[in-house]
Structures
1.
Amino acid sequence: MLYNHGRSPSQPARAGQALVLLALTLFVLLGFSALAVDVAFAYAERRLLQNAVDAAALAGARALYAGQTDIDVITAEAQAALEQNLLANHDPGEGLRLTQFQVQADLETRWVRVTATADIDRFFLGAFYSGQWSTSAQATARVGEQPTDYAFLALEHDNPNAVNLIGNVGVRIVGGSAMSNGGMRCVGNGTFQADGTVDAALSFSQTGNCRFLAGQGVRSGLTPVDDPLTTMPEPPRPTVPSPPGGAAANCTTSGNTMTCPPGHYSNAISHSGNGSLLFPGGTYQFDAPVTFSGNGTVSLGPGFYYFNNGFSVGGNATVTLAPGTYVFKKGEFSLGGNVRLQLQGQPTSCSGSGQEFRLFFVDSSFAVQGNFALQNILPCDVLVYLRNSDFALTGNTDSVIPPGLYYFDGGTFRLQGNQTVTGQDVLFFFGPGSAFNVVGNTRYVLSGVTDPTKLPYPGMQPGLVIFQARGNAQTLRMVGNSGAQVNGILYLPAGTLELSGNASGTWARGQLIVYRFATNGNTNIRVERVEHVIITRPAVWLVE
């Protein structure tokens, strides 16, 4: 048996083929490795170019925000930012080489768009591919206003004491933030604290044990925030009707009832006891005082009433006013004792039905020691205008005042005594020379109109409860005794809000927008954020 230990004639050919295949395989693997290196590098350069384009768009938008409208200036700012960004990530002459750079800007809608294309360095790819190897990126930045969560805003610019806290102060903003367009100062013991941020355009000054605290940071050097209500109109100034005159008239008495028909009364009208004083309605002018005292009733039917010398009611009487116009000049409208004032409306809506109460006080006052009773009264139904006149709630009897617009034109809203005054769906407007004054232990709960269909005047911001005129720079002093509360927007665009007293619990629920803010004494208040108006701050941000 023969054994052959040599190679067959075909073996050398198969070995040569394997070497060729191995070489080809190594070449392909090398190509893939080279491609992987270049592709990975290209992706990294793409991210760098996108970052640089983002920076360029933001720089161009900042130039637009600063007031630049020349596209060449905006382009120069954008290109400088892009080149600076690229230089920070590459050595000079290496990396990305720009082949295209374009800046577009829309001055009306305030956006800037930057587009850039750049060639990318190759490592191994050049041995296999000689075509285009580049990347592109695009970014758009917008100039505008971004919503904030401010529940407190002090509008005064350039004053380091725009917010000035003195004494044993405790101010807590719950569920929101605070902003001062000037600075914030705190002297004494206490804190100004917000769940969000505490911001200021200027600096913070802290003396003693006073501190500014915030859940999301205390920040200074911010851009001032615009007044969100700057375009809101003030309520139109009412026109006081002229005396109607008319034919002379006289009252008649039957039993305990005195009835006074429409007309012009030159002599005083006086009635007392347990009976009634009845004005059936129509047009009236009274040149002498009208008085009633006792436990009876005074009824004024629908019409126009002009009191030239006062109207006073005392005792335990009930006074009923029907819808109409009531003018009190010189003499006061005085309700003393336990008098109950009832506004007797009709079922209505705020659609101009004419069922309104219009009370005008000229060099007079509205002095109330009793209480109000309301029937079918909406905030759009009631206007109380006080020119050089006071609205004074005094005594120890709690009062519920009617909803509506209280327009003070040189007068004062006085709360005095040991009582709680409640006003739901009310707006107090303080024109130049007008003031708000709380004396004693009076507590107040005042709430603005939030239903847009029931606003006291067109263009009013829903939620507004106190509005001091833009030309009124007086200090509005409010006492924060326990139980006092303001629900809605307190808006003093030119005035100072000064708080004092021994408040506890929630003093305000809404938003405080004031020119300047100060505390004095042992003030300790909580402001719970309820957004009625959106407060924004200037910002530049990327939108794509």
2.
Amino acid sequence: MAELSKVKSDLIAEIEKRVEDHVLEPSNAELLTKLISQADNDNEAISIAALGTTYKRTGLHFDKRLERLTHDIRYFRKNDKLSFHTDNSKPTHKLIIGDNYEALQNLLVQYTGAIGVIYIDPPYGKDSMGEFAQTNYQNAITRDNLLSMLYPRLQLAKQLLSDSGVIFCSIDDKNQAYVKCLFDEVFGESNFIANICREAIKGGTKTKNIKQVHDYIIVFAKNIAANENGILSGEEFSENYSYDYLDEKGFFAKGRELNKWGASSRREDSPSMWFPIKGPEGDVYPIRNDGSEGRWRWGREKLLKAVDENEVIFEKREDGTYVAYEKIRDNKIKNKQLISFLKDCFLNAKGSEDLKEVFNTLMSPFDYAKPVNLISYLIESFPEEDAIILDFFAGSGTTGHAVLDLNKDGGNRTFILCQMNEKTDTTPNGIAYDVTAKRLKRIMTGECYDGTKDFEWIKKNKPYGGNLDVYEIDKVADFEYTEGKSPFDVIDETLYGQPRFATLQEKIDWVCSHFGNARKQLD
């Protein structure tokens, strides 16, 4: 091997020093050293070394975990014991148990560009992040693991968001500046919407300096230019419509279309949302602009009631089909705009009370759970009443609870939750089994998996109903060809919204086309 130049030797020495200082991961340093040694010239070596030092757009320094291809394909396997269906006319929600990085890779097979809202509450405390992502506020790698853990997950989440989608991220005071920079890096600073300050606790414990009683919710759009139907104030909402219509109740505006457009707008995307309503000349079905069969935004009960109460207006196309619109009156226009400071209404104590009622316990079975009304408040600002809501740090399942509660307005929102099954002293079977799944089962069906109904929540509330499919992450070697055990045998296409394939070749083509990402693993 040729002798290294002085520049290359110095760069490698600097990388070794960064490993000693716990600023750079040894595995990443090994790869950088190899690349620098093989660089064609010193300028190229300097550029390579920069990969281990900074992100150029924000100047944010952290050690990014690298992806590598493995021979194992991760895929969804349905857990029939935890899954349940109560009413197939209602939405089917999903709980995915396992590493959320692998869950997000699999969700891309079906949901690329289809998620309307993402809410995450990542583990950012020094004692709550697990062995891989422990944060130590006293040393040089304070946030490397947190940021490194979030970075690839946010990249996948961005691909899942619809063009008009939004993402909310709860974060504490110590980390919010760094995580905000990370979001700037991934989503672009121009897509920043707000940094909401939330009063999290009342009073707090005495400290040497200042009592900290708040945290933050960072809000970004996927593409703020496409977010015209996003978080609107009452005034902006009014200005979007002209009051040109008059009926026996007075003037009204022709509001947004009740025909669903864009992602997931075909009939086959949601068969239960294809049904007739009474129009000016007989039955009206949701027909897309291209003439194909579509779907409604609202569920059957809500939409038929609106038609009966003369709250729907119809416009005839040139081809004879109709578009339906919601009638909106002045007294119905609500200010849905979020504000940047939340006080009194969304305290963490309410989150603990929510859980204690569901589990009939004196102590909450999950620490630091956010209150249901907070997540409802955030999701409700997004106007799509049939949006898909994703939370890939699901914890106790508060986001799922919030979606179910919001759907009492006749909405058809669905949730996808991802949660690792970490075992603790209070959750011997794992958080996903002992808390997340049990919470959803109780509030959706009115009873736990063992049939018991002795919990406080059911005395005050009616079960939400609906359906839950529970998946776990499994793996299969890409070189496994044993009959019945190959990837083409064990991967179930119906779990990805795909009809059964008629031929093996179709199945092989589909697996090869869609599961390349599911072979990537974080070093």
3.
Amino acid sequence: MSSNVTQAANVTQAAKADARANASVNPAGAHTTGSTSTAQYGDYEPIIGIEIHAQLSTKSKMFCAASTEFGAGDNENICEVDTAMPGALPVVNKRAVEFSIKMGLALGCEIRKRSVFSRKQYFYPDLPKGYQISQFDLPLCEHGNVEFFLDGVKKNVSITRAHMEEDAGKSTHHGEYSLINLNRAGTPLLEIVSGPDIRGPAESAEYARTVHKILRYLDVCDGNLEEGSFRCDCNVSVRKKGETTLRTRVEIKNINSFRFVEKAVEYEILRQIDCYETGEKIVQETRLYDPDKNRTFAMRSKEEAHDYRYFPDPDLLPVELEDAYIDQIRATLPELPLKRAERFQAAYGIPEYDSLVLTQEKELADFYEYVVKAAGPGKDAAANAKAASNWVMTDLMRELNESKKTVVTSPISADKIGKMIALIDSGTISGKIAKQVFAEMWTSGKDPETVVKEKGLVQITDTSAIERAIDDVIAASPNETTAYRAGKEKLVGFFVGQVMKATKGQASPDLVNQLLKKKLAGN
């Protein structure tokens, strides 16, 4: 086949994959369901494994005392070890080991008592030593698993290994020349490698979100996607349904967005299916994802382990751990997201959906529990817990998102929202009045009791006062009254609205409905 014909065939194939990927992945980043994603692949089944590189939140680098501060001037946070000066020797960062063990335990991994650092040989201009210090045959953590829900179905993805390594520097290209910034060189990373257990784009994204969530809960990685603290390499292959052997895989490198994980994996699945359908050979290679064009493109051929010529780093002793040290770290593990969500359902009686949303971030889950505590059991503890869930998930999150704040910087404390819910529960204010109270608290930061008192927002529960308002509304609406009594009972909404308007929204809605029906019935 001539080069022009080959090029034309590749363009056609790419166009077909583009069209199918764009049709199946929501451009706004919404999850596609597992059933929809899988059904469109016909006789093929995707096999996906993900390697996550998490930057550990240590103050110094993996093998030296240079700072890991983000945003420093170019080549400001470097030392002799980063720049591979002759005679400079690495020293293992104890805190990085501690953080790695902590994450390994959270993933259910076995912690190896004796792990070894190796030299991974490859050349890049931003890797001054000509090798990366990583772990190969004796990694720190092995054989774990991650559980999460997708479309209401619990998924389980195995963790093959999680090992410590250092990051490389960064090259920026400017026409005919490139600049090297070594600030990131030597930053401690934990590489978390899943088994080939993932079966679709949405599942890939949700797995990555779950690992990200656990890292954040443990406070061992800030998870900042924009700053590169959390990056995903997705290994994708497809095979015919019923096959048990794995086919050639392709790695999509350095994806720093959950939405892009989903879209890149979807595109690559469809690209590979088109290759098999047209008789083109799948090459084991590393590809990059272009979010603007929503497609992957070849970067380089994929190296095998032997290409890196691993051998134990002679400058570093093995990391040897005692049971007591591992148990000491195990004792610091917090309640993890999925377990916390399950407890929320059992303890507070909230739906599964609410519990999963509220446990997305540790700070948000803490905030919710503080709200429930401040609201108290009241007349109905389950109703108050659900009310707390609704206020946090809707009103609070809406305001936080619009103002680009977090629950940590929220102008309204959990205590104030809880007290407001207690006022609703006691009948002091209605749910409708609470909307006004919430808005005022957001602006002024005042307590709900103060807002209610200053604004005169106490709910009217005096039946005689409500009856007078109802009598006035009925007297002013003879046509509607006649129509209601003739069988048009839907008009009750009209009367409720008029009474609430007459009482400036302060009448108890329950009492209004109860008394209205009696009055309209002629009682």
